[in-house]
Amino acid sequence: MELVKDTESKIEIKDAEIISESQPEAEQPQAEPQPFTMTIVMQPNGSVNLTAPFQNKILCYGLLEIARDIVRDYQVPAVSESEKTQ
Questions:
Q1: Which of 2, 50, 82, 84 is most open to solvent, judged by the fewest CB atoms within 10 Å of its CB?
Q2: How many CB atoms are located within 10 Å of the residue 62 CB?
Q3: What is the pLDDT of residues 22-68, one digit of tens each?
Q4: CB within 8 Å of 24: residues ≥ 6 apart
């Protein structure tokens, strides 16, 4: 007997008989994807705290690369002469 996975519904098969059939996946509520966050905090004493999804190192390195690019590409707004004297 060959079992072909049906992506539209989940079917439990035992001895080639359908025992139960669940709702199609399209009808089941999908969980809202959660954002990934990485927080780097430098304390006044110089220590650094890092909060990140450490269980996924590839994601962590990717977030660091994106943050590095954002910092590198950031353009500091020009300060007018009148703002400099204040």
A1: 2
A2: 13
A3: 555 556 778 888 888 999 999 999 999 999 999 999 999 999 999 99
A4: 8, 9
